[in-house]
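anyone seen this seq b4? input:
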Amino acid sequence: MCGINGYIKFNHESKEQLNADMNTMNKLIFHRGPDEDGVFSESNDSYSIAMAMRRLSIIDLSSGKQPIYTDDKKIVIVFNGEIYNYRELKSKLINEGVTFSTTSDTEVILKLYEKYGVESFKELDGMFAFSIYDKKKNKLYITRDFFGEKPLYYYKSDNQLIWASELKSIVSVLDKKPAINKRGLNLYFRLTYIPAPYTIYDNIHKLEPYHYIEYDLSTHNFSINAIDIEIEPKTRKVSFDEAKKDVKALMYESVVSRSVSDVPIGTFLSGGVDSSVVSLCLSQFKSTPIDTFSIGFEEKGFDETDKSQIVAKMLKSNHHEFIISEKDLEEDISKILLNFDEPFSDSSSLPTFIVSNRTQKYAKVALTGDGGDEVFGGYNKYYMGKMNDRYTKFIPKALHGSLVKLGTPLLKTSTDNRGRKYKINRLLNSVNYEGDYYWDIISLGHTQNSLHKYLLPNLLDNDIFSSYIKSTGIKGPKTLTEFRKIDKHISLEGDMLVKVDRTSMLNSLECRAPFLNKKIWDYTNTLPEDYLMKGWDKKYILKEAFKDQFPDEFLNKSKSGFGVPVGNWLRSSLRKELESYIIEKELIDQNIFNVDEIIELVKNHLSSKEDNSFKVWNYYCFQKWYFNTYK
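predicted toks r here
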C-alpha cells in the first residue's frame, strides 16, 4: 500500500530538478507510505519523465522496494494497492518460464504486463493504481482498479501530464491553482462529494475505475480506455439454496484472499450485517482470536456499540471499543476535512478517521464491510423504487404538491436527531412523477431545485448527471439492479471509498474490503433481484447464507449507520468558525452564493429555528476547503 506520483514534461529537465519535483510531491503524501520512498527519473531531448512512490510495507517487507524494473531495465512501475491473486498469477508465469527477483505483488504486475501487455490488467484481482513506463514502446500506462478503491488524479496540458494519488501533489507543482470547475461545484453541493471523472478544479480529473490511460510519448496521442468491456449480465437459473451456498463460499474465499499480510491484521466491527460477516469469516480460518475494532458515541442516539459487543463476544475476539465525544474531534477536524483536498462533506469520515487512528496502534491492516450494501442491495433508498411507484399510482401529482407544501413546516425539526419527521420529509421530497427520483435520492446535499436558491445563476449546472447516464446507460433507474449500478459508478467510487481511503491512509492504515470483489459483484448481478431484496427484506441472500452462525434475528436488527451529530456540533464547538463563513463582505467577494439566502440558511440552523444539518454541514465543509486551501 502506497501513494504514487509522476509527470511527463515535453522539455529537457535535469535529473536533479526531476527528483526535486518528485520529492515535493512525495512529501505531501508521506502519510500514505511512511516506511520508504523511491524515485525513477529520466530525461532526453524530447521529454522528461519521473515517477515516484511512498510505501507502506504490507507484503514482502524486505525486497518489495519500488520502483521495480524488468530484467532489461526497459519497463518500470510504481504501484499503490494490493493484488490479492498475485500468488496464483506468479505461479502461472513461473510455469511459463518467467523469473522473479522479489516476492512482491508489484513485480507480478510488471512481469504480467511484459508478457501480455495491457490485456493483463483484467487478470488482476485487487485494489490498485499504478503507472508503467515502457521504454521499448515509448508509452506510459496509468491504471485504476475495478471499483475505484485506490485514487488516481491526473492533469493534462499541451506540454505536460501529471498524475498522483492525491490532489495536493498535482496542485503543488502547477504554476497556479486552476479555476473552480462548474460541474464539480454542482456535483459537490448536490451529492456532498465529487465522483470521477470530475474534481473541484478545471483540467484536473479522476481516472474512472477499471480504465487506463495510454500516452504515446512519440506522437503525444492520449487516450482513456476501459480495461474490459462491461457486458450486461443475464439472470442465471439457480435455486435459492444453491445460490446461498455460492454466496457463502465466495465470501469465505474473498476474506481469505484479502487477509494475506506480513503485518498484524484486524477488522472494523460496527455490529451491522456486513462487518459482522467479514469478522466471522476471518475468525473461522485464523488459529488465534482476531482483533476487532469498533467506535461509539457519548450521544446515545448515535451509539450502537451494543451490536458490535454481541458479535465480539460470540467470536471471542480481542475487541477494542473506542467511545468518542465532540471534544475528541475538535483538534482533528481540520486535518481530516482538509486532507480530502477538495470539498467533501460525508460526516462519517470523522468517526472513520478516529477508528482508523485507534486501530493503527494495534494493526497495520483492517478488513471492512464496505461495499456490502451496493453488492447485496442493503440501502433503505433501494425501497424507493417500490414506494415511488405505489405512491404516484394513488396520489395525484397536484395532491402531492399540496402535501409537500403542508408537510414542510410541520415536519421541521430543530435538532439533528434524524428521526421519524426527518425520514418522512426526505421521503416526500424524493417522490418524482417523471421517473427520475433516484437522482434526487442520492443527492444528500441539495436537490436541483434547492440548489437554485443558494448558488449564483451563472454557476448552476442543470445537466450534472448526463455523463453518468451515458456511462451507465440508465436515465430513469427503476430496478434494484439499476440502483446498484448507479451507486457503484457514483456513490461508492466518489464517497464511500474516498472516505475510507483518505482517513485510513492519513493514519498509515491499510483497509481492505472483501465485499469489493469483482467475482462477487458479477455473481450477484446474475441473481434474480428478489434473492437480494425479498419484499422489504434487504440483503436477503447474504443474511440467509450466514444466519445459522449468529444469534436468532441478529442479522435482521435495524442499524442506523455511521451517523455523526454534526448538526449539533455546528451550534457548539464549530459555531465560531461557521459564523466566520457568513460574513457578508466575504461572501460578496467570493461571488459563489446568493448571499442573503445562504446567511438565512445558516442563521436559522444556529438559532434552532429549524434543523438544516445536512445543508449547513455541506456549506461549512466547502467554505473550510475554500478559505484554507483554495483562496
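Residues 480-505 form the longest helix (26 residues). The chain has three domains: 2-226, 243-562, 565-631. kinda curious what u guys think
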